[in-house]
Design goal:
The complex is a heterodimer of chains A (about 260) and B (about 290).
Chain A (H helix, E strand, L loop, with lengths): L2 H17 L1 H27 L7 H31 L3 H5 L5 H31 L7 H29 L6 H13 L10 H8 L2 H13 L6 H31 L8
Helix pairs in contact in A: 1-2, 1-5, 2-3, 2-5, 3-5, 3-6, 3-9, 6-9, 6-10, 9-10
Chain B lengths: L1 H16 L6 H9 L5 E12 L2 E12 L3 E5 L6 H8 L7 E6 L2 E2 L4 H6 L1 E4 L11 H11 L5 H11 L15 H13 L5 E5 L7 H18 L2 E5 L3 H7 L2 E6 L2 E6 L1 H9 L8 H9 L8
Parallel strand pairs in B: 3-8, 3-9, 6-7, 7-8
Antiparallel strand pairs in B: 1-2, 1-4, 4-5, 9-10
Helix pairs in contact in B: 10-11
Chain lengths: ~260, ~290
Amino acid sequence: MKPYRIGAVVVRHAYEARHNLDRVTDTLYWPVMDIIVWGFFTLYLARDNRLQPGLVSFLLGGVILWGMFRSFQRDMAAGFLAELWSRNLVNLFSTPLTVSEYMTGLIAVNLIKALLGTLAAGLVAWLCYSYDIFPAFPALLPFMLNLVLFGLAVGIVITGLIFRYTMRIQGLTWSFTALLMPLSCVFYPVRSLPKTLRLLALILPTSHAFEGMRQAMAGGGFSAGHFVWGAALNAIYMVLALFFFRLMFASAQSRGLLVKLE
Amino acid sequence: MEVEQKMPAANTQRSVRQNGNPDPARSREASANGSAGVVLKVEHLSKTFGNFQAVDNLSFSVSEGEFIGIIGPNGAGKTTTIYMLLGLITPSAGDIRIFGRKLVENREHILQRTSFASPYISFPPRLTVEENLTIFARLYGVRDKSSQLSKLLKMFEIENLRDKPVSRLSSGENTRLGLCKAMINNPRLLLLDEPTAFLDPQAALNVKGVLLDLQRSSRTTIIYTSHNLADVEAMCQRLIFLSHGRMIAAGSPIEVTQEILREDRREPALAEAFLRIGKGEPNEAV
C-alpha cells in the first residue's frame, strides 16, 4: 500500500466536502438533529421525575453512539456511491490505486467524519441539556472502537454488494442499520428482548457495545466481558466481510460490471 | 497469429520513421525482461459474458513508440479489449503482458506507466478541473504537480478552465480534461477510446497534433480506438480490425483495406472496408 495513493483518496473527499453541502449535512446535521429531538424527549420525561436514575445518560449516550455507528456504516458505502454517481470509477481504477488503498482512504475519511459528528452531538447535548458525555469518553472509547469496526464490516459488505449488484441495491446504504437497530439494544437492555431474539442480539457487536456503555454510565465500571465479546465478534465479521468483498469484487471484474456501473 | 507475422514489416516501417533516441532506462528494462522493444503482448485473449463472446482468441503485440488503431463496428470488442488491458475486466482466457510483465501479477507496476482516456468517462462534477487533476497527480505520485498541471492545461488549450467545476464543462472540454488526466503520469503506454469524440475540428486537430508529437518525441506507445476512419488512416501505422470479437484483419491501413476488400488498392479505403464488414460479406475471419 502506498500512503500517497491513500492520501489522494482522502484529498478527493476533502475537495468534495468543500463543494458539496450534502457531505456537511451527513456529517453534522443528522447527529445534531437526533440529539436535539431525543434531548427534548428526555427533558419531557424528566419533568415529573418519571425517569429512572441514569436513564437520560442511557438515552442520550445511545443516540450519540448509534449515530456514530450509523454514519460510519453509511458513509463507507456512500463514499463509494459518490464515485459511481460521478462516473469516476473507471478513472480511479485505471490508475495503480488498489482496492485496499481505496478502502483505507475511505476509512480514514469516514473516521474523521464520524469523529466530527460525535463531537458535534456531544457538544449540543452538553450545551442544551447539560448532559456531558465527555468525562465518560475514556470508558466508552473501547465500545466506540467496536462500533466503528462493526460499522466498517457492514459498510464493506454493502460496498461489495453494490460492486456486484450495482446501484439497484444502493438503498441498503441508508436502510441496513435500521434492520440492526432493534437487535442492537441501543435504548434498552438485552434482557428486555424476547428469549429467542436475545441469542440473535448477542451475536451482534453493537448489542455488546451498548450493554457496555450502559454499565459504564451507570457507574459499574468497564465491562471487559462485553468489550472482549464485541471485539471477538468483530474479528470474525471483519474476516468474513473482507472475504465477501473480495468475492464480490472479483465477480464484478469478471462480469465487466466495474465499467458498467457508471 | 497473422499479426505476429506482420510485426517485422511494421517495425521496419516504424524504425525508418522514428527519429527520436530511445530512453536508455526503458531499453534497459525491456532488455532485462527479454522483450526488447515489445511493450504489449496479448496472447489468445478471450472474454465471454454468459453466452456472448465479446473477444475471441485475440493475439497481437505492440512495440515501443507504435501508434496502433483498434477499429471495428459497435460491439466488436474494442472497448472490452481496452478494459482487459487495464485490468478492469478479467479475461476468460489468454495472457496479457505489458512492459514484459504479466498484467495479472504486476497491475500496480504496469498501471503506474500506463494511462487511459475516454470521453465517455466522467469526473466528480463539483470538483474543479485543477482539483480533479491534482487527485490523479497524487494517485500517480507526480512530484511537481503544479508545473505538470500547467503544462498539460496549456498543451490542450484549457488553461482558462483551471478553476471551473467539471459540471460546467462542455463535452469537448471534458474530453480534453480526460486527455490531461491521461498524460499526467507521462505514460509509456497510452490507451485512448475515441479521444476526438465531441471535439470541434480545431480542438481535434490540436489533440491529434499533441498525440503525434508525444509519440515522436517520447516514444510513447499509443493504442487508439475510433470510428473516425479518416483520423485512424492519418494517425495509425498499424490497425487491428475486430468484428464480433475476432481479429479479421491487421496491418497498415492499406493492408487492412486490401485484406478486407480482397482487391489490390493503392490508397486506404477503410470506410469501404467497414461497410463491407457491416454487410456481413465474406472474409469474416482470418
